[in-house]
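Quick start: what a row looks like.
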Amino acid sequence: MDSLTADLKKLREKCEHYEGDIKLHKRMIEKTNQPQSYMIAEVERSEKELHFAQKKIKSLEQEVKKMKADNEHLRVTKNGLNDDL
């Protein structure tokens, strides 16, 4: 009977120890999961910045095309005026 009681006591201690380990591991998992949410938020923010930059690039490219067309038009006008003189 005493050996069974001793074994039961040891098993309870092991169980308590394992429960403590489980709690510790759960806390560690929660802490490691938090940076993932920060990383996801950072990726989303970077994607928004990239999208904005791509829009800006497209608008600047359109401005460059417009300026080139205006420049070509002015060049043709200048050449026409030079020919008239």
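That is the whole record. The radius of gyration is 37 Å. The longest helix spans residues 2-84.
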